[in-house]
Amino acid sequence: MTQLIIAIVTTHLLTCSAHAQFACDSPLDIRFGSTDVQTLKSSQALTVSAPCAGDQAIEHAGFYRFTAPSTGWYAIHLVPTDPLPWRPRLAVIPSCTEPAAIMFGWPHYGRPLCEEDNFEPRTSASVTVHVEAGQTRLIVIGGDEPGDAGSAILKIAPLGSTLMDGARMLAVGDNQFTAAALEPALPYTGACGVKTEDRMNNASRFAFTPQRSGQYTISFCNSSRYNVALSTSPDLAISTVVTTAYGCLSGGGITAELDAGTTYFVAAGDFDHRLRGPSDVPFSPCQGQPDCVNRS
Q: Residue 83: pLDDT above 90?
């Protein structure tokens, strides 16, 4: 009987946590995985100083505390689950007394839940931050406008010691890949108003080491990848970004001079999380082939 009572109480507490709004001085501790969360219109807004954008308001702010088990990059997503979409905002701050955001996520329009066969337009917000082992960060969730509130899923996943840990190695020629419904948002380290944006949302990650020096074209045409960045750094430091491109109407493509034996890191995504569903399309780094430039 005692065990039954404990089980009932525990279940009740876990259920209630999804329907509570946690204040900055009493955040809910969370770990990896998915957590059911909710923003309440009765909660106050929080103003944070967003990198590259100045002061930004998060309406109906709720707070969650994350302590990193190891040093590295962590991808965080806030995905509304209500039948009627609302626009989320997401920020990571050091503490209640230091509200300046380390990273800030705007609402992104698209279909981030398409892996569940739901093709209605949805919104989401994503950030990726670097945290030292044992370091605690506050994750702030909320809405874009006073009317934006509701239920959501807060997802946290480790990327690794660099932004490109786990990047898929590619070879010259067509490489099939599947774009996941929620890829990480990759910040251009040190960027503000450079290369159009300071981050790339919903980014698939690749690595490519050419066997010969020369000019290569990397094309994502006819895919859901609109934007492409090529860097010599696995952390996409802005000083190491070789080139970026937005093009091909239905997918991005870039051309650059690459050195043999050097590993280049390729991020391919979208600035607004627009994803038409998981797409199995060819990625093609190629050299000296006439059909490389304008793939259709």
A: no
- Asked if the model's pLDDT at residue 221 lies above 80, the reply is no
What is the predicted pLDDT for the residue at 71? Answer: 97
Containing structural domain, residue 94: 20-160
Specify if 148 maps to a domain: yes
Residue 291 lies in a domain: no
**For residue 62, pLDDT beyond 80:** yes
Residues linked to residue 268 through DSSP beta bridges, in sequence order: 204, 228
Position 1 in a domain: no
Cα–Cα distance, 172 to 295 (Å, whole number)? 15
| Tokens 């093709």 found at | 119
141, 191: one domain: no
Q: Compute the mean pLDDT over every residue in the chain, rounded to the nearest whole number.
A: 77
Residue partners of 54: CB distance under 8 A and separation at least 6: none
Q: How far apart are CA 155 and CA 172, in angstroms?
A: 35
Q: How many CB atoms lie within 10 A of CB 51?
A: 18
Q: Listing from the earlier edge strand, what are the strands of the sheet with 175-178?
A: 175-178, 280-286, 214-219, 253-258
Q: Which of 105, 125, 160 is the last residue of a domain?
A: 160
pLDDT digits (tens, 9 = 90+) for 275-292: 333 333 444 565 544 344
Lowest mean pLDDT segment, chosen from 87-101, 112-126, 274-288: 274-288
Residue 121 phi/psi, 5-degree rounding, is -60, 130
- Final residue of a structural domain among 160, 191, 217: 160
Q: Which two tokens stand for residue 138?
A: 């506050």
> For the chain, percent helix, then strand, then coil, each to nearest 5?
5, 45, 45
* Side-chain half-sphere exposure of 79, counting CA atoms within 13 A: 24
Which has more confidence, 258 or 181? 258
* CATH number assigned to the domain comprising residue 181: 2.60.120.380
Non-local CB neighbours of 236 within 8 Å, separated by 6+ positions = 163, 164, 186, 187, 188, 189, 229, 265, 267
